[in-house]
Amino acid sequence: MEVITIDSATCAACGYLKAAADDMVAEFGDKVKIVERKITEPENIARMDLLGVANLPSICINGEVEFVSVIPNRDELRQSIGTRL
User: Residue 61 belongs to what domain range?
Assistant: First the structure.
């Protein structure tokens, strides 16, 4: 799972989205890997373009944009991950 953010340490919405993703590691264990892609790093801007992400923060699961500018509740995120495992 890729969490594309401005920077979760400085952007409140980005931090909430990253925390929601991190919560899924507790539920799914090593089946889920979280990678934060901060747009403060040039290679992550390129990745964002490749994925077609237009707004931040966003979550991509297995290379597919799943949540854009919205913080999903635990059930929504759990279901999205579960259908891809």
Answer: 2-82
